[in-house]
Amino acid sequence: MRVDTPYSKIEALVVDDMATQQTTLRGQLGMLGIGKIDAAGSAEDALRMVRAKHYGLILCDYNLNHKTDGQQLFEFLREGRLLAQDTLFFMITAESNYNSVASASEHMPDAYLLKPITAGDIEDRLKSQLDKRHALLDINKALSKNDLPAALLACDALLAKKDRWFMHALQIKGQTLLDLGNADEARQVYQGALDLRAGLMWAQIGLARAQKAAGKFEEAKRLAQAILSSPEGDKNLAAYDIAAQALEALGDHGAAMQMMKKSAQVVPSARRQRQLAESAYRNGDLATAKASLQKAVKFSQGAITAQAQDLLSLAQTQIDLGETKEALELIADSATRATRGAQEPEFEAVALALRAQAHALQGESEKAAREAEQALAQAPMTGKADFATVTLARAALLTGQIETGLKLINQAVSADHENSRIQQLACKALNDTGHKDQIEGVVHAASKGLKTRLHEAKMLLRAGQLDEALQAIEAELAEYPENTTVLLECAQMNCMALRLKKKLDDSRLNQVRDYLARLEKLMPGNDRVAQMRRYLRETLAALQGNSPFSISATAAPAGRAGA
Fold first, then answer.
1. Cβ(514)–Cβ(492) under 8 Å?
2. pLDDT band at 560 (very low <50, low <70, confident <90, very high)
């Protein structure tokens, strides 16, 4: 006869490559009253099951004896936002030093259990986590629905109790305010936490993030560097990220790269190596770019975290270093072809463009020209602000298709004209292919031209020519559908149109929501997008009579100002 326990309603997933261990863990969970238990023998199976079903608890072995270990699976699930807000992830390991392994990783599981484990060990961790989940239930329910205002109210209700969960609620409130675009209120929350408990690390990090979100990049950099200079914060990944992002926003790309280099030394994960390689490549440090990409490939080879883009970027770096033979061998390698994503049409087009570059530099002009033609035929001339477009442009420029190459560079820059990263890539491509004299006329002119047209659209709005202004800005969006600055301007100007007309318009409102959804996909977690969502909420509140009405925009300027 089944006996109900506090854990009976939990659905669990056991991830272990050994059938005997799966059976043991099933039995231990059964002793706790957990009856609905699935099992996966590999990270790939676990990934498929997590995508198909919600689990309240995941028990995962650290050493899966596959190319993907438990920590890699956990980080992949967390970074891909595949774990629900209320899913608990427990790592099981025979490694006595796992705590130091997890501490030097991007994410830490909710608990870890050292083998051999008992049902009592699982229950102890489960009870502790469920007590916390119960205390934060209303907050997490609101967050799971992405109802951030309701989450704030739930935080305030828990804060009013002044119990042992007070600081937890305060931490969530600060992050929720940042997600809502309320940087100043978030700053006050984090400063209040520090007033209560000086040196609190999450509050120091939160304060730096709030300053960055408010566009105060010098102050954000100062706060992040102060954390990194302290004994307890010298390996804090979040502080490295904030410092690097603030430095990028301030235009100090070299210093930002040094921050990324230090963070990759603290946690040499594939993700950190990719970030460092991208920055190093843009800044002309090809040796660092190559070494970092080789590490990223080695760390993730055969795992679910492997990315075909690593191999393409490595091949481009080798070509830039004059290592054309090595680049061609890498592109042709069977392991490269077996990497996740290598079967996509875009991969083949970029691979052809890389081969064209290599053969052009080796003096095989006819072969290079054929490969460039094939690459361009497989990738229509709808340039995006990305590596692929610049790689295609390089192939065209090196095989004598100058007009096509310059057009692609122009498209790449115009596709996200305030993105300093793509401008660096474009300038480097022109310089490397012997067209340095075109930088001003192509890269800078493309950026300046779009800025001018956006300014003219805003001037039409200020002159009261609302329909003409919206028509102008949306024409730019039709031309450059993934330009984040244009999307932000469209969202802001349509909100202003709602305010000017002083009435709700469902069609326009849905259009703004569509712009914001597209922005979230292009720039997840971006401060400017959060502030634009805030402006939309304020617009709705004003139109519904819940707040004073104002035509002026309180959203931050739509221009890029850091991540």
1. no
2. very low
Q: Is the peptide bond before 116 cis (omega within 30 degrees of 0)?
A: yes
Other Cβ atoms within 10 Å of 463 Cβ, number:
10
Contacts of 138 (CB under 8 A, 6+ apart): 154, 157, 158
How high is the pLDDT of residue 379?
Answer: 80
Average pLDDT over residues 72-98: 87
Q: Report how far apart, in Å, the C-alpha atoms of 557 and of each of 104, 136, 191, 531, 561 are.
A: 37, 35, 26, 9, 9
Mean pLDDT of the chain, nearest integer: 91
DSSP for 103-156, written as a single string: HTSS---SEEEESS--HHHHHHHHHHHHHHHHHTHHHHHHHHTT-HHHHHHHHH
Task: Say what the pLDDT of residue 84 is.
Answer: 87
Of 39, 99, 38, 50, the closest CA to residue 74 belongs to 50
The rounded distance, in Å, linking the Cα atoms of 237 and 106 is 8
pLDDT in tens, 504-553: 899 999 999 999 999 999 998 899 999 999 999 999 988 887 555 554 54
How many beta carbons lie within 10 A of that of residue 26, not counting itself?
18
Q: Which residues have C-beta within 8 Å of that of residue 202, sequence separation ≥ 6?
A: 171, 193
Amino acid residing at 319 = I
Round to whole Å and give the CA distance between 314 and 328. 11
Q: Which residues, at least 6 apart from 351, have a Cβ–Cβ distance to it below 8 Å?
A: 312, 315, 331
Residues 257, 281: Cα–Cα separation, whole Å: 10
Distance, CA of 380 to CA of 106 (rounded, Å): 37
Cα 416 from Cα 483, distance rounded (Å): 4
Nearest Cα neighbor of 527 from 184, 168, 227 is: 184
| Reported pTM | 0.87
Pairing mode of beta strands 11-15, 57-61: parallel
% of the chain residues with pLDDT over 90: 73
Whole-number Å distance between alpha carbons of 556 and 563: 14
β-pair type (36-40, 57-61)? unpaired
Give the separation between CA 539 and CA 551, rounded to whole angstroms: 9
